[in-house]
Structure formats: structure tokens, C-alpha cells
Amino acid sequence: MRVKIIGSAAGGGFPQWNCNYRLSRAARRGMPGVRSRTQSSIAVSADGTDWVLFNASPDIRQQIAQAPELQPAADAPLRSTPIRAVVLTNADVDHVAGLLSLRERQPFAIYATAQVLATLEASSIFNVLDPAIVPRRLLAQTEEMAICGADGHPTGVVVGSFPVPGKVALYLEQRGDPAADFSSDTGDTIGVRIGGTGGRGAVFYIPGCSRIGAALRARLADAACLLFDGTVYTDDEMITARVGQKTGARMGHIAMSGEAGSIVGLADVKIGRRIFIHINNTNPVLDENSAEHAAVKAAGWEVASDGMEIEF
Ligand code: MLT
Ligand code: MN
Q1: Distance of CA 212 to CAs 27, 207, 265, Å?
Q2: C-beta of 237 in contact with ligand 1 (< 6 A)
Q3: pTM over the 0.90 mark
Q4: I need a labelling partner for 268 at 20 to 30 A (CA). Which of 64, 77, 141, 226 fits?
Q5: Member of which family (predicted)?
Q6: 59 alpha carbon to ligand 2 midpoint, in Å?
Q7: Are 150 and 135 in contact (CB under 8 A)?
């Protein structure tokens, strides 16, 4: 099984188009240790030929251009792709907007929860992917589901999926009610287990998660690798950076640091490799020479960058 991180940044990417914060500025001027990153997505293959994307980011065209394994093979038909399916972990813009770039009457399958399928259904722009050519399938919350191409042929990638605490997509929040609670743990946001039996030997992909509870900790025990929500280092980071008013929690993301953070929350869970992904442009770990980056490494975590590969 090959897992390739094709986009390691959170929504907006790094640097973000309109961001003038010190980290985006450092990335733009090519400061050593501050690498640019595209938006949240991974590619998985069981056989090295057929690929399944987990999330379709707005940067998908660039991500395919940077990954030869996701491009049409030299001996393939005039219109073709090795991408057989796209699995969605929520309906956020950074996870679904790339679907629009996969138009051109090219067969592949979309897998998502009932909530996310309903969101796609409600936006007629997604009809550029004709459901007769690009079937939309319910991602059952089961331990094992074989991901198949549009023709029903198994890709060899088998996933388990489960709801995690998060929230509905930003554009689904009702306007004008800042105090409203948009949190959800019923399938608006999910985590996926790729391969393995039970947790053992599996790779978990959880790019959005607002809380770590006992059930999640039990599920992750003995995982080979965890790719986990690394949006913010501290909960109030966007406020102290003066780029926004929202906390990580309000956006549906647990912080890395602090007593309620993910580093502490998962410290005593046995996991082979733990890697932060979906990293926001305010997160100081983006600077490899920062104290925060060193702290994360000292706690046994890696910080994902684009192109990183995991074989298991
Ligand atoms: C998130 O992860 O919180 C979203 O991607 C935010 C957004 O939609 O910009
Ligand atoms: Mn996101």
C-alpha cells in the first residue's frame, strides 16, 4: 500500500493568496525551512497503478502535475486517468472544490457520507460530474468497505470510516447567528482507516477533528500511522496573529498544544508514526526552525509536507 500526501496545508494553502502574515511572507520569499504547501488531500494505491484520492482540493490540478503516478499512463487511451475514486471526509471547500476540476466526462467514483452527498446534491454546479459517468456512492460507516472504480472494479483499497467531532462546512452555517453551535459528530466530518485489520497495521487519515475522546483513542491503538488534524498549534492562534476572530475549536479543529490538545490527548496511544496534516498558514510549526516545530518533533510527531510518502 502506498500513501502519498499530495496536499498538506489547510484551506487556503500555504502561502494563502491574500495572507500577509509573517509565515506566508516567509514562504513567498523562499526562506529556508519554510516550505509552501497545497491544500488538504492524500492519494492511496494498493497496486501502484490504480489510485484513490481522499479529498479533492482546489489545488488538484497542480497536485496531479506534481505526481506522475496520478497522470495518464503513456500507453493509456487518449482520455484516461489512474484516479479511480475520490473519498470525501467532509464537504469543506478545501476537500470538495477539486471535484470541479475533474470534469471532462471521465469515469471515477465519489464516496461520501449521506450529509456530504446531500451537500453535493444541493449544489447544481457539481452536475458537471454527470452521475451517470461519475457515480456517487454512500460511504457506509462500517469497518470494511472496498473502494471501487466507476465500473465497479475494486481498487484494492479498503477503508473503514467513522464520524469524528467536527462541524458542518463553513458555507452551511446559517448567517447572522454568531453564537449558534455548528458542531456535529454524526457524519458531517469523518475519519478513515485505510488497510489493516481492526486498528492494527492501518493508516488513519483524520484531517479535521475537534476533540479526542476515549472511543477515538481506542480506535487508534496499534495503528501503523496516523495522519491527523494539525490546523492550529494553539487554539487562539488566528486571533493572536490578528488574521481572524475564530478559535480552532470554533472552526472544528483541536489544537496541537495544551492540556486539551492532540499531542497530550494521544500521548499514551501506541501509534507507529504520527504525522500532522491540514496545517493552517498561521501555524508556527510551518517554520522548521521554530521552537514549536522542535516541540512537536520532541513529542514524537512529524509535520507533513507535500510529496511525503508512506509505505506499509
Ligand atoms: C476548515 O478546515 O476549517 C475549512 O477548510 C475552512 C474553510 O472552509 O476555509
Ligand atoms: Mn479544511
Answers
A1: 31, 13, 6
A2: no
A3: yes
A4: 141
A5: Belongs to the PqqB family.
A6: 13
A7: yes
Q: What is the pLDDT of residues 207-218, one digit of tens each?
A: 999 999 999 999
Mutate which of 90, 92, 173 to test ligand 1's pocket (most atoms within 8 Å of Cβ)? 92
What tens digit of pLDDT does each residue of 212-251 get?
999 999 999 999 999 999 999 999 999 999 999 999 999 9
What whole-number distance in Å separates Cα of residue 58 and Cα of residue 80?
20
Give how far Cα 32 sits from Cα of 23, 29, 145, 280, 307, Å. 12, 9, 42, 19, 18
Q: Considering Cα of 237, then 170, then 278, then 27, what sign does the dihedral take?
A: negative
C-alpha 145, offset from chain centre: 19
Reported as a pLDDT band with limits 50, 70 and 90, residue 143 is: confident
- Output the CA 111–ligand 1 centroid distance in Å: 20
